[in-house]
Amino acid sequence: MLKDVTFGQYYPGNSLLHRTDPRIKMLILIEYLVLVLVAKSELAALISLAFTAFLIAVSGVRLRVLIKSVKPLIFVLAFTAIINLFFTVGEGEPLIEWSFITVYSSGVRNAVMMLLRLLSLVLGTSVLISFTTSPLELTDAIEALLSPLKKIKVPVHEFAMMMSIALRFIPTLIEETNKIISAQKARCADFESGKLLERIKALIPILIPLFVSAVRRAEELADAMECRCYNGGEGRTKLKAMKSRPTDYVFLFAATVVTVAVFLANRLQFSEILTLCKAIF
Asked: Which range has the top average pLDDT, 70-74, 234-238, 251-255?
């Protein structure tokens, strides 16, 4: 049932994105989220989609893994597209008009734009954070970027550690859920037939053991950290120091240029951009 969920899994590799400083990747992630969310015109959406394809290309992650990451969200993507397609009221003559269903060209545009935006968010964030950044690197990057907050007594190290542990335990909980489902099916449990309320009630034998298992794992982790005299980030040193390379800053600069290009594409028409480029060059 959950075998296709890949969120939170790290895939070791030696690609350009794997070798990029995790602090730079976090900054690129912020810019990436901005450029995807603010893309409103068709040209801006194409620019953000092209940058997403670039991230996928330099990540070295297999296409099969990317498809698996999108597969659990097919229903959400389809539902969002349908809502935008049939419930967007536009100007002019409708493209399709049948009974109570009316489809305008603006509805088709909004559905395609929203679908591309969600796909870009899922693939881009997974490639930047989950697939190419280990939990330890992610913890160090978050702590380094938020280190100025230590001056006002914000527990930056503990916050970064909690985020890292949460991401690390996602694949573990998914694996545990699959084991519980297999065990319940071996006892003739049925999770796929019956009415909606019956299917919801059938999930109770899954949720209770999963909750107990999660609490037990949390207690074991807490005991292990106490036995190793863990007392927060004070006085701790790093086994591997993070170092930025010139290519990392080039990567960050390229993301900044793409972000600015998306803002310009939202304000200018495609013909105006061509005229501006001819005037510059």
From this structure: 251-255
**Percent of the chain, pLDDT > 70?**
82
Comparison of pLDDT for 106 and 21, the residue scoring more? 21
Cα–Cα distance measured from residue 17 to residue 93, given in angstroms and rounded to the nearest whole number:
47
The pTM for the full model equals 0.74
Q: Say if residue 266 is exposed, middle or buried (CB neighbours under 10 Å; 0-12, 13-18, 19+).
A: middle
Residues 14-37: b if buried by 16+ CB within 10 A, e if exposed: ebbbbebbbbbbbbbbebbbebbe
- Residue with token string 């993070």: 242
Give the separation between CA 268 and CA 67, rounded to whole angstroms. 34
Please write down the long-range contacts of 240-246, taking CB distance under 8 Å and 24 or more positions apart.
242/21, 242/22, 242/23, 242/137, 242/140, 242/141, 242/144, 243/21, 244/21, 244/23, 244/24, 245/19, 245/21
Q: Which residues contact 68 (CB under 8 A, 6 or more apart)?
A: 4, 6
Which residue ranges make up each domain of the chain?
Answer: 15-131+248-281, 134-244
* Strand ranges, E, within 43-161: 96-98, 101-103
pLDDT digits (tens, 9 = 90+) for 160-204: 778 778 777 877 887 888 888 888 888 777 777 767 677 777 778
